[in-house]
Specification:
alpha/beta, eight-stranded mixed sheet, six-stranded mixed sheet
């Protein structure tokens, strides 16, 4: 994958920022950098189903996307109310011209963590709204993160939202810890949004992380003329969020 190779090359010459860097003056990464890291364990199915039930959005009962530790979960996703012309799913199944937009923004203006996501993402999710298609129900993108008691598990969720000319949609991204005592985990997320002429996206981002969690994310937006984009973001919990 070209994006991953380019990111790996960029990381080879990169240095992790410290509080001496202006952009990270108020973000001390030392607790993260000194923690042992590991891959997420196999998700707890019962805990996942319980978390899904607790976070259910009635308006999005047929427009729900489930992503567990950075991977699209087709079995638990429910897209039955999505217009036939729209696409939501794994990047590998998306229209090639749309999937090709992955990394178009993060390569140019992403942070070090966005580049790290480029290099480590194991499965991007794509939302594609074709020209003049209006999705009335909110699309609920539900992320669950598994933690560990003696290390920090790492996931790199990736979302690409493309709303073409005259299209319209609402996307609600929600992050939760999987299980009552999720332990430590790092979510390093990237969302790229591309809006065509007169395209519209209402975007919400809710992070309900465990007390031991690290959560870093980038939201990158490219807008054509007369497009409309709005964002409401809320973060609760977490040891470090940025």
């Amino acid at each position: 994958m070209e994006l991953r190779a380019d990111a790996a090359a960029a990381l080879a010459a990169a240095r992790m920022p410290t509080t001496r860097n202006e952009l990270y003056r108020y973000t001390d990464l030392a607790p993260l950098l000194t923690s042992p890291v590991s891959a997420p364990p196999a998700p707890d199915a019962a805990a996942l189903d319980s978390a899904l039930a607790a976070a259910e959005l009635p308006a999005a009962c047929g427009t729900r996307v489930v992503i567990v530790d950075g991977r699209f979960d087709a079995e638990r996703s429910n897209l039955s109310a999505l217009p036939a012309a729209a696409f939501v799913g794994a990047a590998s199944d998306a229209p090639p011209a749309v999937a090709a937009l992955l990394g178009a923004q993060s390569r140019v203006r992403g942070s070090l963590f966005a580049t790290l996501n480029d290099a480590t993402c194991v499965g991007a999710t794509v939302v594609h709204i074709p020209p003049h298609v209006v999705v009335d129900a909110p699309l609920h993108v539900f992320y669950a993160s598994s933690g560990a008691a003696d290390s920090v598990t790492v996931s790199a969720p990736r979302l690409l939202i493309v709303v073409e000319e005259g299209g319209s949609a609402e996307v609600v991204e929600e992050y939760v810890a999987l299980g009552a005592a999720a332990g430590g985990y790092l979510v390093n997320g990237v969302t790229e949004v591309a809006l065509g002429v007169r395209g519209a996206l209402k975007h919400s981002y809710l992070a309900l992380d465990g007390a031991a969690a690290f959560h870093v994310k980038a939201t990158l937006v490219a807008q054509a003329e007369e497009s409309m984009y709005s964002l409401v973001e809320a973060r609760l919990g977490g040891r470090l969020t940025r």
